[in-house]
Amino acid sequence: MSIWLIIILLLIILLALYTAVTYNGLVKGKSSVLEAGSAIDAQLKHRNDLIPNLVETVNKFASNEKDVLGDVVKSRDISQATLDSNADLNEKMAASDNLTSALNRLITATEAYPDLKGNVDFDKLMKDLSNTEDKISYTRQMFKSTSNNFNNSLRQFPASIVAQSFKFSPFESLKTEEEKKTAPKANFKA
Questions:
Q1: Is 0.85 topped by the overall pTM?
Q2: What fold does the segment set 19-170 form as a domain?
Q3: How far apart, in whole angstroms, are the C-alpha atoms of residue 40 and residue 126?
Q4: Where are the domains of the chain?
Q5: pLDDT digits over 86-108, tens only?
Q6: CA-based radius of gyration for the chain
Q7: Which of 11, 115, 164, 178 is most open to solvent, judged by the fewest CB atoms within 10 Å of its CB?
């Protein structure tokens, strides 16, 4: 066998190995991003499952807050509908952000009801909701991080050639509505 044939065979083998390793890395990265997206869905579903109990508990104490409770129920239904459909992650997060706003209005309204704030069921639900909100925030960050890493690996040369060959596509970034980026202003003048 000639030396050139051996060199060519070695180059082909190295190229095949590089392609296989890169492909497997991209598959693993894509799986990580999909898993992070599923984690967001799971936390949103858990929060949506808490809402009816929270609304029922508040309803017992705060019968004057029907509009706020109605907004929470409506936002929860929209959020659940996006989870049940094939909505993209940004649509799910927009519905989630609207639900968070409605919940914040509900929490503010409950401040006027000291009996409610002292209720054990309400306290447990609020702690569970707070923990779930923290988990949603964490899973959003995890999704952003894993999708950013995956998208970067798609753009790096020579891995980009393998990615294009196997039709890997980047994941869309999570978007936050502009009004959600600014902190709310506190008004202590009543």
A1: no
A2: de novo design (two linked rop proteins) (1.20.1440)
A3: 20
A4: 19-170
A5: 888 888 988 999 998 888 888 88
A6: 24
A7: 178
